[in-house]
Structure formats: C-alpha cells, structure tokens
Amino acid sequence: MKDLIQNRIGFMQGRLSPMVDGRIQAFPKDHWRRELRDAGQIGLALMEWTLDQEGLRENPLLSSAGRAEIQRLSSGFGVIVPSVTGDCFMQAPFYKLPQARESLLYDLEAIIQACGSLSIKYIVFPLVDAGRLETPDQVKDLRAGLAGVEPLLRRLEVGIVFESDYGPQELARFIEEFPDDCFGINYDIGNSASFGFRPEEELGAYGERVRNVHVKDRLLGGTTVPLGCGAADFETVFSALLKLCYSGNFILQTARASDDDHLGAIRRYLDFTLQFLTRKA
Predict the structure, then answer these.
(1) d(Cα 90, Cα 93) in Å, to the nearest integer?
(2) What is the pTM of this model?
C-alpha cells in the first residue's frame, strides 16, 4: 500500500535546483536533467513539468529532440512526467491580450500536442495572480479560446485543470460550464489556506472535478512556508479527498530550502506527505 501511494507523489520541476533569478518557481534550464536523476534517487515517482512564457519555444518539451531526451531520462531514472504547470498562461493570458491572442492560442495548441506525444495527462492552467479572471469579458474570451482546442484535447487524451482564486461556489459554477472529459480542477492546498477557504466547503462544492493536487502550505493571507508551518488544514483536506475516492497525484509545490539544501527539503516534504497519506489509507 505504501509503495502504491508513494507512486502518486511527485514534485514541481525546479524544486530540486537553485532558484532562477530569485524566483520560487521557474524552469531550471541548467539543471532539469539532474533533477530527474535526483528525484529517482530519493524515491519520487513523478515530476510536474514547468513552462514559462520567457523562453517557451526553447523549452525541451516544445521540440521533438527535447521530448526524446525527456522520454529517455524519464525511463532511465524511473520518474514519470504526468502533468505540466503552464505558468506561461498566467504570464501571458490570451484572454487579456487581444493583440497577441492568435499567437498565444497557437502556443497552447503546440503545448497540447507536445503533452499528447509524451502521454502527459494534465496541463495546469493558473487563473491566479496576473492570470486571474477580472471581468465577464475575460471569462467569455477564455471559454471561447478553450472551446477551440477541445477537439485536440479529446483526440490526444489531454486534460486542462484550472487553478483558481475563486471561492467554492463560484468555482463550482465556473467548472460546470466546461465538459468533464476535457477540463477539471487543480486543487492547491496552500493557496486555499492563504485565501482562508474552508477545505470541506471547497471539496464539497467541486471535489468530484479535482484531477490534480498541489501540496503546499501558506500563511493566512501570506506566503509559502514549510509544510505544517502555515494555515493549511491537512487533516481535513486529506480526509475529504479520501471520502471522494480521489485517485490522482499529489505534487509537492513546496517552500524553498533556506539553506539551499533543496534535495533535503524535498525529502522531508515527501516523508511528511507520505506519512499523512499512509495514515489515511
């Protein structure tokens, strides 16, 4: 049972590398190969890939040669890439940039194609920070753009999962407008804690649409902190997911190591999450 659960725990690409330009999350272009090796050595089975708008076309995921190398290293080190976090969609949201809309939607199609070729199941689409939905027109433009890629998502069996700052009922209404076979929700434990949302209310409203979970802790109204040091109610979250028979993955999108021992930090966060999940199993 423990091995089966551990195979559902992964980490956010970049968390095993030095920060890029002081950012907590960015594609580690100089270290991504080593990360796959290190992850395999500490027993992590999964890695969620990261895409930034800057340098998007140079990301290995977007070239055939790069995908071949990803596949080779993934197989060699036993670390699967089941999902991609599209920070690029937050950094350059097509529904807010009409002058670049066509080009950005072309990029989205290329990303879906790339994910399909590597059997990557989910693309996390952040509707937070610069990507948050602020007007009805933005919601309308988002839906219209994504409707155009639905056939491609179905054909390649790739899903888009939204990460949102909407409250429970608002997010439940929002996701109802999208077909279940192509769209779902990425539940971020830390973000919800920071917003002051109640996990039992959130997961009661839309839990059946959750397809991916980011394991993170944040202070109420504040920043990311080590697991167990913030406002996240892990007891309630994991109990609610268990009741929902959630069978998806848990991705460690955790605080960076203050002493630069990124491998040691991820190992501690893995143990934290694994112990909790095995206690709930």
Answers:
(1) 5
(2) 0.96
